[in-house]
Structure formats: structure tokens, C-alpha cells
Amino acid sequence: MTTYLRPATSLILLMTLITGAVYPLVVTGVAQMAFPEQANGSLLRDDQGQVRGSLLIAQAFKGDAWFHARPSAADYATVASGASNLAPSNPALAQRIDDSAAQQYIEAQGPVPLDLLTTSGSGLDPHLSPAAVAYQLPRVAAARQLGTQALQALVEQSTLQPLIGPPVVNVLALNAALERLAPASN
């Protein structure tokens, strides 16, 4: 019996040490050296060094003076992140989208872009399409008493072109740049 027990126990302890301690430490060390910003959560800091959020996670911005992110089924909570799991045929989903569209609709601008009405798979997608950001320009410009041209230039500076896929705008980074350009009066 000890002929089998001793090697099995030794192997379990060795593999626990390798996979539970050595490997995670090596991967963490390589990540810290090669990609320190990403390994530490892609945190966005203000001028005083205070963390304002992660560029990887959407946040709720309330009020007309801010660009709003996509809706979140989990109300932007990372612990309960996830989709609403409502099927396209579900009347509750159609009603929620209709309500959101009615709330955000501006007649002179046409239909509300879909990424302002639908949630992402995680409910925490920090990016919007440039069209969804452009739809919000008049509201933000009026609230901040800025010209739409100044905001459009800010949006163009904040637009990212990923290696694969369409251009996107990170809403947190855009709102941080907006606050530096013209601080909100609240």
C-alpha cells in the first residue's frame, strides 16, 4: 500500500506547489514586466493620482453633462455581471428597448443607435461606437455649454481603432478628457 501512497502523495504535493505557487508567480512576474498597465487593471487616474475607474469596465454616468455607456443588465456591478438572458422573442426585452429608445430619442437626430439600447454580453462593455457617442453630442454640448465642434474633436481623439473590428470609443476615457476640457458644474 505504501508503495502507491508515497508516490501519489509526493506527486500531489509537487503539482500543488508547481500549479498553485510557482506557475502563478512566474505568470504574474512576466505580466508585470511585459504589460504592467494591463496587469494592474488598466486603471485611469485623475490629475491628483486618484483612481477613477478601469478602462476595461463600464461605469454609470448620470446627467446630461456626461456621455453615457451602454445599458447594463447588472447595473454596472462587476460581481453580478452578465447579460439579461432575455431572448429576442421575449416581450420584456422589447419593452425595455422601446422604453430606452423613447427616453433617449431626439427627433432631429433620427433613431437611437443600438449600442445605446442593448446590453453587452457581460453588461460591462466600456466601449461605444462613434455613432452612439455622436448621438449624445448635442445633449452633452448643451449641458457643458460647449460647441459641438470642440466635442467632436475630443471624440475623434478618443476613438480607438482595434486590430480587429470597428472603431470604438472608451466612455470612461472620453468623460475624463471631457472633464479636463470643461469641468462639470455640479
UniProtKB/TrEMBL annotation:
GO terms for molecular function: ATP binding; P-type potassium transmembrane transporter activity. HAMAP family: KdpC. The keyword Phosphoprotein does not apply. The gene is kdpC. The keyword Transmembrane applies. It is a single-pass membrane protein. Part of the high-affinity ATP-driven potassium transport (or Kdp) system, which catalyzes the hydrolysis of ATP coupled with the electrogenic transport of potassium into the cytoplasm. This subunit acts as a catalytic chaperone that increases the ATP-binding affinity of the ATP-hydrolyzing subunit KdpB by the formation of a transient KdpB/KdpC/ATP ternary complex. It comes from the Bacteria. Its main location: membrane. Keywords: ATP-binding, Cell membrane, Ion transport, Membrane, Nucleotide-binding, Potassium, Potassium transport, Transmembrane, Transmembrane helix, Transport. Belongs to the KdpC family. One of its GO terms (cellular component) is plasma membrane. It is found in: Cell membrane. The system is composed of three essential subunits: KdpA, KdpB and KdpC. This is Potassium-transporting ATPase KdpC subunit. Pfam families: KdpC.
